[in-house]
Write a structure and sequence with these properties.
The chain is of the alpha/beta class. It has one domain: Rossmann fold. It has eight helices and seven strands, in the order E-H-E-H-E-H-E-H-E-H-H-E-H-H-E. A seven-stranded parallel sheet has the order 3-2-1-4-5-6-7, with helices on both faces. Helix 1 (18-29) crosses helix 8 and helix 4 packs parallel to helix 6. It starts with 8 loop residues before the first strand and ends in an 8-residue tail after the last strand. It binds nicotinamide-adenine-dinucleotide. Nicotinamide-adenine-dinucleotide binds next to helix 1 and helix 4.
Length: 249
């Protein structure tokens, strides 16, 4: 199929690996132009782009650090040149950290807040004017159950993820009259590289606390994100939808 200006376009930040990769896959399979933003995962991004193109889908991998406004500006220009517009933004890029609050350095704190909150601000602010003009658009923010209930030894992460929920609710109210839906997906524990920092024992404990007795799969989060991007979900805005196996009820 290749690049197509008639298709809808989705921009997925941190779209090369884990949950972001699964989101890229599901949108590509449903004939969106998929913009795979990456920062450090160049090999994974190029492999995913090549794989999707070889299967006849439309994909473009673009390097940009979501915390750098200038880099996001360039990314948006490139997407407009390639596809014409952006219909769906998925703010998925994220980092994690497990350490005591008292051991968290100022640099680590700033980086956590910047990737999740400034990144979401940068990307959203640059797609909203176009969505307002078209009176149509979807912004989907990937938060976490820890942003809903807090996690010990993840104070900075929980803070950033809770901030994404506040942003979602406020922006949904502001953009509702322009027919733009802003929602949050708050995953529970999902099997990705982000879980590598936990020991097998810690993972076992998390599974024991999960009523469905397993971790989630990246594809399960991707399917929920895709659903929220569809016209059938047009009456859903400002919500936090948590796919978590019952870990948080
Ligand atoms: P991951 O580490 O596989 O993916 C995160 C991606 O974000 C990576 O590709 C990384 O390179 C990218 N990224 C980081 N900083 C960036 C920056 N400055 N600019 C652009 N890209 C950047 O982890 P994942 O598990 O797939 O996580 C995806 C999202 O889901 C994150 O926001 C994470 O907080 C959230 N989440 C994950 C889980 C889980 O259990 N895995 C649970 C809840 C929420």
């Amino acid at each position: 199929m290749g690049f197509n200006k008639m298709n809808r376009t989705v921009l997925i930040t941190g779209g090369a690996k884990g949950i972001g990769k699964a989101i890229s896959e599901v949108f590509a399979q449903n004939h969106y132009n998929v913009v795979i933003n990456y920062f450090s995962s160049e090999k994974a991004a190029q492999k995913l782009e090549k794989d999707l193109l070889e299967r006849g889908f439309s994909a473009l991998a673009i390097c940009a650090d979501v915390t750098k406004r200038g880099e996001i500006e360039k990314l948006i220009d490139t997407v407009h040149w390639a596809f014409g517009s952006i219909d769906v933004l998925v703010n998925n890029a994220g980092i994690s950290q497990n350490k005591l609050f008292t051991d968290t350095t100022e640099e680590e704190w700033d980086s956590m807040i910047n990737v999740h909150l400034k990144g979401m601000y940068n990307c959203s602010q640059m797609v909203v004017p176009e969505m307002v003009r078209k009176k149509q658009g979807k912004i989907i923010n990937i938060s976490s159950i820890w942003g809903m209930v807090g996690a010990s030894c993840e104070v900075s992460y929980s803070t950033a993820k809770a901030g994404m929920i506040g942003f979602t609710k406020a922006l949904a109210k502001e953009l509702g009259p322009s027919n733009i839906q802003v929602n949050c997906v708050a995953p529970g524990v999902i099997e990705t590289e982000m879980m590598d920092s936990f020991t097998e024992e810690e993972k076992g404990m998390m599974i024991e606390q999960t009523p469905l007795m397993r971790f989630g799969k990246a594809e399960e989060i991707a399917n929920l994100v895709f659903y929220l991007a569809q016209p059938g979900a047009d009456f859903i805005t400002g919500q936090v939808i948590s796919s978590n196996g019952g870990l948080v009820i």
